[in-house]
Amino acid sequence: SIMPATLAAVSNGAKRGVLFKGGVHLEHLGSLKAIAFDKTGTLTSGKPVVTDFIVRDGEDVNSSLALLASIESQSNHPLAIAIVKHAEEHGIVNRDNPQIEDVPGYGIRAFTDTGEVLVGNPRFVGKELIDDFHEGIVQKLSDEGKTVVFMKDSNGILAAIALKDTLRPEAVQAIKDLKNLGIQSIMLTGDNDKTAKAIAKEAGLDKFVAECLPEKKVEELKRLKTEYGEVGMVGDGINDAPALATATSGIAMGEGTDVALETADVVLMQNDLTRISYAVKVSRKMQRIVK
Ligand code: ADP
Ligand code: MG
């Protein structure tokens, strides 16, 4: 049977934006030594905006953007939504709906009238091609914390598009609060090393793991558990669900995908990251009452 004190804490939590899916989850939070955070949609708003668009010499900017948007219009990835919006704002009307294949953690493979086109990160289109594309520009964009997505056709890299996501306003405070409770925060992201480093620095995080594919997030969680013992995971996406299930406490953002919300033990209903330290404090207090 559930203790009256637990019941009160769960009900207070709900009033203050934290949904505990049971008393046992409330208990776990107090023992966390480290918390892993997904980047996009968790530490950041997940609503990136396009900042730069660069095409291969001799290519038309508008038709390249139109091709990119027609491919991304078939995906519901946050980057895809931002790219389609950018194209619309530039008066580009989508006419084509090429057949596509989603490649999670990498991007999209499209089958267009003129052949296969890849849209995604350097690992997907081929890292060796990136260095030669408008010399050094990709490095510069990544150092600014921007995510760069590439489009490749049979002639090589056709275009690069940079997007900037913003940290959630309370992210820095939330990480600081956890540090004061003796909890180490680590960022896990599918994004590349340079972009990840810039965002981690902005958030005040000492540790991050970049190029973390969905299955690697689970591996990383297991590794962190060996290192720290009890480890939490905060995420929003479908690809975070396995890691949320592996963690001591799986924490989902309220605006996350259904799968993340279902898998998690705790939900941050208002997407407010400072609610994590609040929940940890409540849990530690509970442990003192119960014992
Ligand atoms: P995160 O861990 O940051 O939430 P994801 O695992 O969703 O990232 O994606 C990892 C990377 O794969 C992205 O940073 C991007 O480079 C690439 N990617 C995934 N889906 C798409 C897409 N629809 N369009 C372009 N790039 C994509
Ligand atoms: Mg995410």
From TrEMBL:
Localization: Cell membrane
GO MF terms held by the record: ATP binding; ATP hydrolysis activity; ATPase-coupled monoatomic cation transmembrane transporter activity; metal ion binding
Main location: membrane
GO cellular component entries: plasma membrane
Protein origin, superkingdom: Bacteria
Keywords: ATP-binding, Cell membrane, Ion transport, Magnesium, Membrane, Metal-binding, Nucleotide-binding, Phosphoprotein, Translocase, Transmembrane, Transmembrane helix, Transport
UniProt KW Cell cycle keyword: no
Family: Belongs to the cation transport ATPase (P-type) (TC 3.A.3) family. Type IB subfamily.
Protein name per the record: Heavy metal translocating P-type ATPase
Organism expressing this protein natively: Sporosarcina thermotolerans
Taxonomic placement: Bacteria, Bacillati, Bacillota, Bacilli, Bacillales
Included stretch of the parent chain: 294 to 584 of 634
